[in-house]
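=== Structure Prediction Worksheet ===
Name of assembly: unnamed complex
Input type: mixed (protein and possibly other molecules)
Chain count: six
Listed entries:
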Amino acid sequence: MAPRAQARKRLLEAAIRTLAVEGYGGTTARSIARTGGFAPGVIYYHFDDLEDLLLAALRHTSEIRMACYKEALGSCTDATELLARLRELYAEDMRDQGHIDAVQELFAASSTSPRLRAELLAHVEPWADFAAAAIRRLVQGTAFEDMVPSREIGLMAVAMFLGIQTITHLDGDRTRIESLFATVEPAAILWDAFARGGSTLSDK
Amino acid sequence: MAPRAQARKRLLEAAIRTLAVEGYGGTTARSIARTGGFAPGVIYYHFDDLEDLLLAALRHTSEIRMACYKEALGSCTDATELLARLRELYAEDMRDQGHIDAVQELFAASSTSPRLRAELLAHVEPWADFAAAAIRRLVQGTAFEDMVPSREIGLMAVAMFLGIQTITHLDGDRTRIESLFATVEPAAILWDAFARGGSTLSDK
Amino acid sequence: MAPRAQARKRLLEAAIRTLAVEGYGGTTARSIARTGGFAPGVIYYHFDDLEDLLLAALRHTSEIRMACYKEALGSCTDATELLARLRELYAEDMRDQGHIDAVQELFAASSTSPRLRAELLAHVEPWADFAAAAIRRLVQGTAFEDMVPSREIGLMAVAMFLGIQTITHLDGDRTRIESLFATVEPAAILWDAFARGGSTLSDK
Amino acid sequence: MAPRAQARKRLLEAAIRTLAVEGYGGTTARSIARTGGFAPGVIYYHFDDLEDLLLAALRHTSEIRMACYKEALGSCTDATELLARLRELYAEDMRDQGHIDAVQELFAASSTSPRLRAELLAHVEPWADFAAAAIRRLVQGTAFEDMVPSREIGLMAVAMFLGIQTITHLDGDRTRIESLFATVEPAAILWDAFARGGSTLSDK
DNA sequence: CATGAATGAGGCTTCATTCAT
DNA sequence: AATGAATGAAGCCTCATTCAT
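=== Predicted Assembly ===
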């Protein structure tokens, strides 16, 4: 049913898989078609352009991930728990068909296409907002509540995620990120104990 | 003198300028030649490959910048001062012929070429070390000296730099970074006053 | 009634409109379908080929115009009147859905397709005959009756029509033709006065 | 010497030959290259575009032919002689590598490319002027001198030439034109005898 | 050392045409 | 009768790279 939408989805997923596996440079109409098992021409039946397909793939993947992250972190006020959930989400991302790698490749390619650049920029904004909101939930009710510039820190968080992803992408060593999570964990525990913990303690 | 070396340098700089101005996608043998005002064939006289030229350009630019950073930050033990010097260096980078943009483009292209990927990785390592050393100097003699995992934080710093660069690259808005420097400044002042400042105070 | 024939007619007219509006180069199965509001596949239900459709469209349009011209000029023996009627017919052609432009495009495409070439040739013949007949009516009863090679002049007339059409097609300036009609008019008046007029005068 | 210009000329002539032999529809980068015995890529080394090459070919051929016509007809004041020379020129055109057929194909293709259309239009004008000048020389000193709208008749002549060419192109029958020349000859003789002849007679 | 013409592979895209529905 | 998704060939063009000069 709705063969049109089904076909489009097949194309989107082939595009994402190809980006992840072959890199942007290797993502050609032919390679996408090979990945998806269809003729190159189909792409142009459903999309104006290769660019168009890639843009749609970006939106597709970003929407899906954003929904997951919102659900998983939406109500989290505890640093330790936040960190744990991020860890899980990240692991899930990695298990996926490579959505994150695909997005990484698109960042890489951004200078090639103004439209792609604009689209990526449009996606950075909401993610930075989302990160800022998570941070605000974290500091809410603590002594630091009014001192923390959550908007800026949100952007920094997104930047760091991007940067780490870039480096991970270079050597394919995903344990590196695990070790960063481990590094940050004590800080999270400290935060919960002293900054938030104080008030929580008195609650009990 | 050494006309060979001189010619090579001309090529390297043309490659860097082309990367910065046209992006990786627009960096072809012809466009580099046009930028530098020589014939495309020359490239193959001095380098095996376009890849070879790009790799050499990366090394060239990275060495130059690393030397600058080492000289400017080498002896810095004060967070406020460190931040101020970083700010200057960054401004200098921007004024330059676009070394940073060129490197950014090469990161973008890394998935295309294993050799490029390896080379970039080989440059990330020393920069992370360098950042770690700067951090160690910062915490040295404070109560946190043994608690701070400087290696990991160094990597995070490099990642953040990379990520911010990526985002800046997207919208061309360089004031964004200025605002991040401004955001971090109070933290640096606090650090100097309490963490370092305390002990330093008693020293005097 | 006769849904088959009706559908064919829809296709023919879509083909003609597309030729006139998009030019031969822009006349594809898809563009014809878009013009006519049907699916590209329908074409192959009613015709073997795109070529087949175009040929049929040529016949369709040529028949319709030939009938008009025959009716309007069939009994015309007066040069001035002949010219006036031609002028009207031409104006009508221009108001039409672009039959003439469509035919012009097919001439353009003739070197692509032998069948099209043959078909066009087969249409030139009757038009030249028709023009020759008109000329014969004009000279009949005059002193020139036996001297005028009407067959050749008929062909020249068709050629001139074609050529003017080609030039008009180039710059879209249809007033050019109006000015040619105006240029010829005095000659027609002269002819009627002296060649035909003389004898006619004595008749009365 | 001047290998650049030589190569360009080779391309221009290959383009013209291909247009004449294969028709516009068959004139692709590959077919031109095959005709000229070079790789398709060369075209893009010397020209921006296929369109660019075709435009240059049109100019090339038009200039050459215009020069010939100017030299042959420049001083002709006699209708019979004018006709004889035109006949020769036409025969020469046919013996050539098909310049005329090539131009014919470009007219056919004009609706495909605005630039081509503009270029053709720019060539029609001088030819019409040239024809008008020839006609003026013909009527000069006769009783009709002030009555003949040479500009308009010049355009008609060009149009007729074009139209005849179109028809000839359809069936490849070049004797048709011979027969038209023969048809017109008596008129030329008459003209020289009565219109011009009168004054010439009194000269002797 | 350098030039610049030439090559050939491969990328994007369009299109006539087919076919399951 | 009609639809519209899919195919595969072919077109245009770019590019790294080579090579005669």
